[in-house]
Specification:
Blueprint (H helix, E strand, L loop, with lengths): L7 H10 L42 H7 L58 H4 L8 H14 L9 H6 L44 E5 L19 E5 H7 L7 E7 L5 E5 L7 E4 L2 H17 L27 H13 L4 H14 L4 H4 L3 H6 L2
Antiparallel strand pairs: 1-2, 3-4, 4-5
Bound molecules: calcium ion (4 copies).
The site of one calcium ion (CA) has 6 residues, from helix 7.
């Protein structure tokens, strides 16, 4: 099926046909489903006001605002960015070299079953995951790591994916930003964000603007790419709640020191194995976040053993490339994965991510692989 469009051969042909250009001629037909540009620049120049009651330090979230506008990508304006203003010299978009991933347009060379070239929703998982078949345990993770690394094309740090895909088509179905830190799955939301219009921006409290939450905090991978822009672990969220979460590990809160308007909580871990502040999202999104973590452990298997010393990463990482997580965190992630099974929202988002950056989250496609790799 379409998917074969991603084979190396096709890629080579494609690049050849396009004159080999990477740098983004802009011609690409690749992402025509994604609203381009607009995104972002509206909030350029907006400086971020340091939040008075912000939980100090490291705060991965505030970093987000710094890049607001735009597609700053690799240029990293980021160095000093913690809370101050910065504005950023963003500029250069790493042009979407789209030719690669995604695309549908040219799978005509596929076999018979490929009836419709414009339909890239069909993914032949048997083909995509072929090299993982028969693998078990950490060997399965290593096989998956190769599979999901191969097609991964870093699209840069911008708003496009979130503005196109993090929309409420599941709860109110009103197309507002689907914010995992403010959505109330069973009732009206405390507030809603309009795409682009409400991009951060300044925030002083909830309901001011949305930005991009790195579920796996940026400081844990030293803000390097492609982790920083990998949409499989990035989610549109309220800027202020994102700030409160800071770079605290996810966990089950005992008694909350702060609670967001949709019930996300900050406080001490309720278990005995980790002594520290954690952030607990609402039940609806616990599995989503756990599977994002399993993705990170797998996609970055070749380097994640070296991240334990970054920031407070030692709170959750154990310095290995196989188990990856400290036991308390692994236990928690498996629990969340089990109690909140894969939803349509995640499947849709996984497909969108595949079309956007060329790789998939295997644990959304095959939830049973979590226990196959990390045990029950
Ligand atoms: Ca909603
Ligand atoms: Ca709702
Ligand atoms: Ca869920
Ligand atoms: Ca550790």
């Amino acid at each position: 099926m379409n998917f074969k469009a991603l084979t190396l051969t096709t890629l080579v042909l494609l690049l050849t046909a396009c004159g080999g250009g990477s740098g983004g001629s802009g011609s690409s037909t690749a992402d025509n489903s994604i609203p381009t540009s607009t995104g972002g620049d509206s909030s350029d120049n907006v400086t971020t006001t340091p939040q008075p009651e912000e939980p100090s330090t490291g705060d991965d979230s505030s970093e987000d605002n710094n890049n607001t506008g735009g597609n700053s990508d690799n240029d990293s304006t980021d160095s000093g960015n913690t809370d101050s203003g910065n504005t950023g010299s963003d500029g250069t978009d790493q042009g979407d070299t789209d030719g690669d991933n995604t695309n549908n347009t040219d799978n005509s060379d596929d076999t018979a079953d490929n009836n419709d070239d414009s339909d890239n929703s069909a993914v032949n998982e048997a083909v995509y995951y072929a090299n993982a078949i028969g693998q078990t345990g950490y060997g399965l993770k290593t096989a998956l790591s190769a599979i999901i690394s191969q097609g991964h094309n870093d699209r840069g740090y911008n708003w496009d994916f979130f503005n196109a895909n993090d929309r409420d088509r599941y709860f109110e179905n009103d197309n507002s930003i689907l914010d995992i830190y403010s959505e109330n799955p069973s009732a009206a939301d405390p507030y809603n964000f309009t795409v682009v219009t409400n991009q951060c921006g300044n925030y002083r409290g909830e309901d001011d603007c949305y930005n991009r939450e790195h579920a796996f905090p940026q400081s844990w991978f030293d803000k390097d790419y492609p982790m920083r822009s990998d949409v499989h672990h990035l989610f549109a969220t309220d800027g202020y709640v994102n700030g409160r979460r800071s770079n605290h590990p996810y966990g089950n809160v005992g008694s909350a020191s702060w609670t967001s308007r949709n019930g996300s909580r900050l406080g001490n871990e309720s278990g005995s194995q980790f002594n520290g502040t954690v952030f607990e999202p609402i039940d609806e999104f616990k599995g989503d976040l756990a599977r994002a973590y399993f993705y990170m452990a797998t996609r970055y298997e070749s380097q994640i053993a070296n991240w334990q010393g970054n920031g407070n990463a030692d709170d959750v990482l154990n310095g290995t490339s196989n188990q990856v997580f400290d036991l308390w965190q692994l236990t928690l992630l498996k629990q969340w994965h089990k109690q909140d099974p894969v939803s349509k929202k995640e499947q849709d988002r996984n497909q969108a991510a595949f079309e956007y950056q060329g790789n998939r989250n295997p644990f959304v496609d095959n939830p049973q692989w979590v226990n196959e790799i990390w045990g029950n």
